[in-house]
Every structure is written in C-alpha cells, then in structure tokens.
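Subject: complex prediction, re-run

Hi both,

The earlier run crashed halfway through, so I resubmitted it with identical inputs.
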Amino acid sequence: MVPSMSLILTNRVGQPESYTLQVFEKTGGYQSVKKLFSLQPNQVIDEVKNSGLRGRGGAGFSAGLKWSFVPQDTGKPVYLCVNADESEPGTFKDRLLLEDDPHQLIEGIIIACYAIRSHTAYIYIRGEFDLPCQRIRSAVAEAYAKGYLGKNIFKSGYDLDVTIHRGAGAYICGEETALLESLEGKKGQPRIKPPFPAVVGLFGSPTVINNVETLSALPFIINHGAAAYRRFGTEKSPGTKLFSVSGHVNKPGVLEKPLGYPLKDLIEKDCGGVLGGKRLKAVVPGGSSVPVLNAQDVETVKLDYESLMQHGSMLGSGGVIVLHEGVDMLWALRNLSRFYAHESCGQCTPCREGSGWVDKILVRFLREGGTSADIELLKDISNNMMGKTICVLADALAMPVLSYLKKFPEDFAAHFRGKTAQAQMHVL
Amino acid sequence: MTMEFSPENKKKLAEILSRYPTKQAALLPTLWLAQGEFGFISQETMEYVAGLLDISPAHVYGVVTFYTMFHRKPPGKYNLQVCRTLSCALRGSESLLDHLKKKLGIGENETTPDGKFSLCTVECLASCGTAPAMMVNQKYFENLDASKVDEILNGLK
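This time it finished cleanly. Structure:
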C-alpha cells in the first residue's frame, strides 16, 4: 500500500524526535530490511533500475545502473561511500534528511550495500555539519545496538559496518573522487577518470558513491516497488526530489515535489512568492553551478532533468536561489566567482588560474567599471575552462559566467566605464 | 614538552584506526581529535600526528593547509564565522559582517585583544533557507539580523 497523500522522503520531517529509532520504527522504519534479505542482490539492483531513480547529488545518473558497474570478481572488498558533503551553494536538503530522518538514510545504506555486496560503508559528512553529524552518529549507534548494523543482521548472514567520516571544510570533497582522496587521508583533489570509482575507487577497490537523498529514497522503492515510485514524477524523471529554496522568497525552505513540478508554482504557491512583492528577476534552479534562468524562463520551466535542459540549465542539486529585481547580476556573479576561486583545489591550471582571473576581472568591473573587451575576456576565459579540467568545478563557474552574460547583458553594460553612477546598483 | 594525546583520545584513536584498512585514512579524524584536545594544529602537532600514522609531516602539513577548518594558530574563544555566499548575501550577510566588525572593533581574520572573539567569513554553510547565518565555533545561528547578533554576543561569556 502506498500512502496516497504522503510523499517519499520527508514524511517524518518536523515530527517530534523523528531522528530516534523509536519514532522511526513506529512509523514503518526498517520494514524494507526484512524484505531485502528475501531478494537476491541483483533483484535489488533491477528494482532500483526499474524505478528510474537518478542520482540526486547533481549529476542525475541512474542509481541502479551505477551499482551494476561494480565488478564482483576482483577479490577485493566493495565499498559504499555516502556523500553527505552537501556544500553546493543554495542546497540544504541533505542536512534536513540527516537532522530529521537519519535512520531512513541508514536503511537506504543497508539496501545499497546489500545490492552491491558491500560490507563497509563510510558516511563522508562535511565538517561544518555538527548537529547533523551528532544525529547520524546516534542513529548509527542505535542501529548497531538493535542489530540493524554489525554482524549477521537479523540472522541473514549479512554483515555491514558503517563508519562516519567527518570532512574539514572543502567544497571540492563533494566531487566523488575528491571525496575518496579525502577519505584516504589526503588533500581532496579529484582523480582522473577512468578508471571510474565503481572499478577502482576507495583504497583501490570497487566503490559506489551515492548522495544522501538518493539513498534515502531506497526504503520506499523496496517497500512499495519500482512502479509505485514511478507514480511520482515524469516518464524520464520519475519520483520526487527535494528542492532547497532560498534567496528572495517569503517562505524559504526544503520542499519535496514530484519531478516535473512547475518552478513558478514552487515560488508562488509553495514559497509565498517573491520577497516584498517585488518582481522576479532570475532563478538559479539547481545549485549555484548551473546556468541561470530569467523571469521568462520561469514562466514555463518544469523541475525535471529534461525541461531544465531544454531551458539551457540543469536540475543539479535542486538548490533554487531566487533573485528579485533589486539584484545586480554582476554583483551576484562576483559572489559566486569568489566562491569558486576560493574552492578550486588548485590542481588544474584552467580552473585554478581561470577562477582567479574571472574573480579579479569581476571585482574590477564592479569597483572601477568595465569595457566590452572585459566581456569578451570573461567569455574567452570561461570557454577555456569548460571541459578542460579533471573535474567539473571549472565548468561550475564557467556556466554561470556565460549564462549571466547572455541573459543579463544590461546589468554588465550598466557598469561600463563612464556609467559609474549606476555602478552602485548592486545595493539590494 | 612532549606532545601526547590523553588516555581517552588514545583509546578513541585506536577505535578510529580499526575502521580503516590504512593508517593514513585516519588522518582527518586524528586531526579532529588533536584540534579538540590541543585547540589548534601546531607544527609540533603535525609531527606528532605524522608519527602516529606513519606518514610524513609534509603530507600532514599539506592536508592541514588544504582544509579550512583546521586552525594553525589558536582562534578566539568564540570563533564567529559569517557565511558570505549568495543566498546569505541576498539576505543581508554583508551588512551583518559590517555590524560585527564595528561592534567588535576588528576586521576579518582578526581576534579581539582579550582573545574572546575571532571573526571570519566562510563559504556556504547549507543554511541558505535560514539566511543569513553564522557558525560560532561549531554551532549554527540562523535567520540573523543586527539585534539578534547583539543578543548572541551578549550570551557568550
């Protein structure tokens, strides 16, 4: 039975002590584990493949397919790494899941590990997440005490250990191979792929890295089946997604919506509209790294992988940042260029130098005014960052730069030299 | 003075080491233990940790300086870390930072002469829906404005 009104991920959010084992079990928690052990691991993979669940960390790759790449004949252990390094600006959904429903994540971890035949999972959680870390730590301890984790889980013969590994402040560690490096006790610098982590990952062993939200959807899929999951969302983007809404809305927060939900409704109906009754200017729909949308795009775009792609952007992490008419897009872009310049790991020249130069040019543009040659230079640098580095951090700055320039040229023109009177418009 | 973990932290370290197939993988958790016990990560601490994990002090130095949360000098008793990234900036983090600078009489990356407060900015804390936000040591304070910040500062003894 699928509860008709409730959604998938956030049913316990906001309930008193929702993070405790007691409340979790009372509300159907760990039910899927019993069913799980009656299935073969390959059946679990097939069910998740059929559900169409796509990775919710940002890339949107089929979760079941990712699992199926793990070779089972290497003689090495298989690892699951849980990506709880949520750091993409505008994104705060995993924090909610960790704080309010950590056992749902653990249940998902058990399912994923069983499917890929792993007996060791590491939860890599960002260093700043103190409360979320306490919550997941207590939940793991409770799960061990009750026999959901450890040796011979519910006499199934299946063993699983979960270790929490705390990061120490570095956006790049959310990139899956940087996460592996960091877990191994190194600087979080991404690895060249191939080999992909599924084959050569943590400690040289086959490894799957899944996002908190992806794993949290698994108990529902095992309990109710792939078809029930597909009742939410669209044909190509099935299921629900968490959207973190921030910036200029009256009621910011995390909302769970079926994929395909109109962005305009999310802002107007669910988040109480634009702050101060002002006009909408722009929306960053999927975390700061994705191309920006203008007000016209927002009229028609739907929150799924395909519709956002058609509008020249991406679903990403589902971090929706709303900007009203008072925002100077040059100022907003410079805020992001500072972020990426700060967070570049320094490994690849186009990213390390490119992000620094973009930031410097934008600062000069803001303070002293710019020229049309600066615009060309920004485009040139961005084009030399895109696709030229080991990971996509360079692209994550280049895409905003190119899209802000394309969609809001007037905000840059307002800062051309000789128009310095208007250069103050970045005041909100 | 020879640096050494407390008996309690030695036990914790042994438990940490049992969770990983290599000693090096225990580096971040061990540095957290060290920062917890010694307050910051000095060069001596880096050498001590390197010895514990059979890795080079140079490697430890590289790691300590890569991540933002390891302090190489002692911060103030209360380390005020104001989020400066877009969602917080849209909701007034810049004026919040200015307010703190004036109130404390210090700039970014400075500590008050009495050692009580340090002030710095940090990148996105995943507190965007409750912006603007700051972290004081490990604790989040959210939905801030100048008067709330004053209240928080008054509560920090």
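The first strand of chain B starts at residue 78 and ends at 83.

- K.
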